[in-house]
């Protein structure tokens, strides 16, 4: 139990998937211009990442038994695309409130590297099922934290500060990310995962 | 005279678009995950750049070849399958011939699949254009990506380890900047690089 907690908090702070492993940058930069959208995307990512990792784990076991592990990339990406499609239909039919909140973010998630990245990391690190769940949930929460922090800073900055013309927009987002990431380096050594 | 005429051909325009004018990383800000995560060593950056260039060219060619047969509703999944086929072959090639680099790149080779540049070129260019232009476009975008990756890696490796391709470039007594070897260094260098290129080309981002 303690080990699971260590993996969970380690993947939020110490090994943050956005700020330490630099994954999921395209949506992080593109959607963080408003705090509202950032929250929506972050929640959708938490939802999808946890579910796809839990589905991909038994599938990987199956691949191991049939000795076709070199195909795991292809199989994972198809699983992810199918899961996202299925979730979209399921939410639209049964929980329309949630569907409206996620809006356009769900289909975009298929090309978010976090989803595939988490699935590839659990293969590399040889986690058990429970560890995979803790790790995927923690990583997704970490990504949510990163996008919300970035969006909050960018929103304030757009109103109040005088940014050089060439740096405005995406350029300054990288500088902010650098400073955020530097702050997260301070958590190094908190937990080993 | 011939040079002037070359300037107006479609070939020239497509290559210029990919390499400089619409550079996928600096202007489009796509596919940054790998551009930042693996650029603390020049040799990793070169391997990654060549891998991505190959995947862009090969997948765009296939998409362009069968573009009239893909139903538009399932086109994304089709692109994904085509792209991941080539990524798997790149991964196997690296593991077979350059095991050390493959180990350092780790999961990032597999993540070429979700590199937005590959998908972006398939969707925006290859699905509408004939094969010959698609090849030029893929090559130009790949080279633009490779160029940016290597130039970031040169700065980061020189500051972080005092070397370039394991050759000593910094004077003796150089204190290594550890921050350049980890994630924050990548963010800062790319941010400054984007600033520099946008000032240089006077191509400012339009604020909405």
The structure class of chain B reads: mainly alpha
Largest interface, Cβ cutoff 8 Å: A-B, 45 and 45 residues
**Average pLDDT, all residues of chain A:** 87
How far is it from the N-terminal to the C-terminal residue of chain B, by CA? 42 Å
Q: What overall form of chain B do the CA principal axes indicate?
A: globular
**CA radius of gyration of chain A:** 17 Å
> Number of folding domains of chain B?
1
Could you estimate the helical fraction of the residues of chain B in percent?
55-70%
Percent of sequence in beta strands of chain B: under 5%
Number of domains of chain A: 1
Give the structural class of chain A: mainly alpha
Total E-strand runs of chain A:
0
Shape of chain A: globular
Biggest sheet statistics of chain A: none
Strand order across the biggest sheet of chain B?
A: 1-2
Strand tally of chain B is 2
How is the quaternary structure best described? heterodimer
Give a verbal description of the structure.
The complex is a heterodimer of chains A (193) and B (208). With 193 residues, chain A is mainly alpha-helical. In chain A, helix 7 (113-125) packs antiparallel against helix 8 (129-160). Chain A is globular and about 60 Å long. Chain A has one domain (2-185). Chain A has nine helices and no strands. In chain B, strand 1 and strand 2 (167-168) form a beta hairpin. The radius of gyration of chain B is 18 Å and the shape is globular. Chain B is built from ten helices and two strands, in the order H-H-H-H-H-H-H-H-E-E-H-H. At the A-B interface, helix 2, helix 4, helix 7 and helix 9 of A face helix 3, helix 5 and helix 10 of B.
């Amino acid at each position: 139990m303690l080990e699971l907690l260590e993996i969970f908090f380690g993947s939020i702070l110490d090994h943050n998937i956005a700020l330490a492993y630099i994954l999921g940058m395209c949506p992080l930069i593109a959607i963080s211009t408003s705090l509202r959208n950032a929250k929506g995307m972050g929640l959708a990512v938490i939802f999808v990442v946890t579910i796809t990792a839990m589905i991909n784990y038994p599938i990987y076991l199956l691949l191991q038994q049939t000795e076709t592990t070199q195909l795991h990339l292809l199989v994972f990406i198809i699983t992810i695309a199918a899961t996202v499609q299925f979730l979209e239909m399921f939410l639209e039919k049964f929980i329309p409130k949630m569907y409206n909140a996620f809006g356009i973010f769900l289909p975009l998630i298929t090309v978010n590297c976090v989803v595939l990245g988490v699935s590839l990391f659990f293969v590399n690190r040889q986690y058990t099922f429970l560890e995979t769940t803790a790790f995927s949930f923690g990583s997704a929460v970490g990504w949510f934290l990163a996008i919300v922090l970035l969006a909050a800073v960018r929103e304030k900055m757009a109103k109040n500060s005088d940014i050089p013309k060439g740096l405005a927009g995406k350029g300054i987002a990288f500088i902010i990310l650098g400073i955020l990431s530097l702050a997260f380096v301070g958590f190094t050594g908190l937990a080993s995962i | 005279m011939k040079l002037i005429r070359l300037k107006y051909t479609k070939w020239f325009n497509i290559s210029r678009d990919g390499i400089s004018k619409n550079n996928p990383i600096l202007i489009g800000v796509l596919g940054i995950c790998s551009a930042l995560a693996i650029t603390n060593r020049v040799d990793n950056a070169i391997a990654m750049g060549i891998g991505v260039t190959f995947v862009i060219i090969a997948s765009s060619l296939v998409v362009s070849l069968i573009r009239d047969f893909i139903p538009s509703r399932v086109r994304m999944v089709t692109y994904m399958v085509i792209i991941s086929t080539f990524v798997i072959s790149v991964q196997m090639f690296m593991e077979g011939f350059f095991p050390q680099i493959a180990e350092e790149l780790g999961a990032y080779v597999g993540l070429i699949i979700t590199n937005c540049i590959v998908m972006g070129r398939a969707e925006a260019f290859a699905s509408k254009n004939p094969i010959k232009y698609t090849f030029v476009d893929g090559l130009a975008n790949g080279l633009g990506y490779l160029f940016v990756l290597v130039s970031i890696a040169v700065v980061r490796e020189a500051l972080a380890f005092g070397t370039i391709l394991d050759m000593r470039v910094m004077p003796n007594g150089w204190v290594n900047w550890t921050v350049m070897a980890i994630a924050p260094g990548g963010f800062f260098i790319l941010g400054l690089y984007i600033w520099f290129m946008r000032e240089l080309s006077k191509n400012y981002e339009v604020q909405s």
